[in-house]
Records
---
Amino acid sequence: MKDCEDVVVYIMPQKIQKQRHRVMKMAALKHHFTLAEEFSDNVTHIVTEYEMADQALKVLKVTELPQHAHLLKVSWFTDSIKAREPVQILNQHKIPLGDANVDSRQKSETPPPNHIPEFSCQRSTPLKHHNAKFCEALELLQDYAEMKEGDDNYMRALAWRRASCVLKSLKFTLTNLNQLKGAKDIGRHVEKILQGILDHGTSDEVERVRNDPWYQKMKIFTKVFGAGVKTSQEWIENGMTTVDEVRQKYTKGDWRLRFGLAFHDELMQLVTRQEADNFKEFIKHQSAKILPDVSVELCGGFKRGKTAGHDIDLLFTHPLKGKELGFLPQLLSILENQKLVLCGKWNRSTFTEEALYSDSKRTKNSQLDHFEKWIGIIKFPKQWRKSISPEELFNDRGESVPLSPDSCEDLEPSKKKQKTDDELSPEEIAASPRNWIARRVDLIVAPYDQYFYALVGWTGSKQFNRDIRTYARRTHNYAMTSHGLYDLTKRKSLPAKSEKEVFDLLGVPYFPAEERNC
Ligand code: CTP
Ligand code: MN
Ligand code: MN
């Protein structure tokens, strides 16, 4: 093939995982390819994960490439590494041209049929939309890719999700693939799935995954509180097929898993909006006694308008920064005294200024933050499950009614417990007579100067966060987290005094939480 000497390769870091980028560069050097650290005139082969040339050119800050330069897919690079030398450029290696290469006259005559902004955070994405059956299929493929390990699968999972998000933001039901012309994130593979559904109502590939026994088991196991992909895989490798079986045979695991397994069935019954509202009112009442003017906000799916969810996310702050210190342990001890805590873990804040910009070091998948928080399971008195008046929620002393969910007054005397819950195993507690149901709860405390970023982060969706953070980085070289926005060029943080200001600083149109269901 081409003499190595003539070839200068530049691997665009954008859209490529840092670690993977490093591995690619090392492979190139091992085979003595000439690598350029930056794009310049002597680069001959530009390798990129961008799917359209116009996107890449924009990032390279050029309107067109020099004659000798080629814009190539990563497949050219991997083929070359396999061949141990730069291989000939085939059609399949080339990046298709995008808008930038269409001349302006043509451009103005044929505007894209529907202009769909690139990032989901720039689009309104309601909870109820017009393309549920397509999105269900694409997100099943996302789910499946997420269960399989490795960077490639992670990227695949993201690609399915992004495509689904495009469909969720459409104001009409898809009837023809032409309606997606001009939309980023709709690749060939996505088109194939969508065409299958348009033609036959289903896609073979999706149905194969849906019926895959491994997928079915993973789907159940990964929903267990405390069980991630790794643990679930381990259970399957050990021949387990149901949560019941795991409960009997699997004795390892931290507190999350032990309680997650013991209370799995009821944790699977979704928390209703009514329950979340009752709980918030109760917590607000208790909180005000400890710290007047404390703010309590219901975040997560409920804030986005969902009527049910897998947990209750409550975010706390106080307008006078510093006042929030010490609040959560006090609240937790009230909950403990009222015997409302089944299990949980309190973590102190691990925030340092560095967390504002060194965020890229975090693992790809998590949106972990450094707030003080409590993650656990609350014993939800059964009364809290229905619509109740404040008098029914509290007694005169402001305590929850019933005083303790363990109170067995309405249970037959013979069924009264002999031991307290501290002396019982999670399974024994689950099997004992009780007046409560287990509910997953997250309690998060944000200092006021980080609050509006925390609010956006804890409202989600997860995909909305991913996209707005990528948007911040790509468009402004800002690092965005639940703690703040940091200008990496000017090395300074950008405080916000409202949720709207967060969007304004980014130049993203403000969408209410109900339209962030990406
Ligand atoms: N989140 C976060 N840091 C975490 C956990 C969650 O920033 N350690 C964010 C998530 O990205 C999400 C929001 O907080 O946007 C709520 O998380 P979660 O309760 O897991 O998801 P929900 O969207 O609320 O879904 P559900 O209604 O099923 O609870
Ligand atoms: Mn939630
Ligand atoms: Mn949560």
---
Amino acid sequence: MSQHIQTKRISAPDISARKGAEPIVCLTAYTAPMAEILDPHCDLLLVGDSVGMVVHGLPTTVGVTMDMMILHGQAVMRTARRAMVVVDMPFGSYEAGAETAYANAARIMKETGCQAVKVESGPEVARTVEYMVRRGIPVMGHIGLRPQAVNVDGGFRAKGRNETERERVIAEAKATDDAGAFCIVVEGVAEELAAEVTGAVHAPTIGIGASAACDGQILVTDDMLGLFDWTPKFVRRYADLRRHVGDAIATYAADVRARRFPASAETYAFKKKA
Ligand code: KIV
């Protein structure tokens, strides 16, 4: 890994100040080498609880633990120098009450060195968000499609496509904004609603499957790099790494079987006596 010159890191107020200005560039990161690659290009790196599905093969994010988030947060913080780093609070770590949420968020920040936490938010956790913000923990909200609610919703599906759901998403946005979140992820909502939410809140909105009407964008890095054979409609694939990795591994396997690898240049020899 390369040596870094210390640069000033982007902060929560810097992100908040970007409302309506240059779009905020965000991606997920779970490992030190990937964070090092993403850092020069991104304003914000999210250690998302999607790590449970993307890296650990879990069916949903519900099984993700505090220890998993802390381990991946520490890895990302070892190489991210410039981008703000936000770590997701896992399911069950903040919903029961403000004091428990504060203790868990403080643990995440102390043990990883990250600058903020993210919670799936709405009127139910508004007091918790406010409690944390007032005590020094910057909070990123997450509204619309909330993956940790998958068991209540019966699956992952876009939100706000009828009047009742539209009102619900607006209520989530306003409650999160009033509670003091420094920015709000808006996931899986139609463009009209994303524009309405963005116009209704002070905090910048970060869209994922929520159109270009938001103040910034985030994607799961592994999705946009094409590491899976299926990606949601809203993901643009910027690379086809699954195919490239598959091709590389097939070539390696063929070389090993044909004794083409390792060659003499890749092999140690006895040192000649002086
Ligand atoms: O966990 C995650 O990666 C997220 C993003 C998709 C916003 O919450």
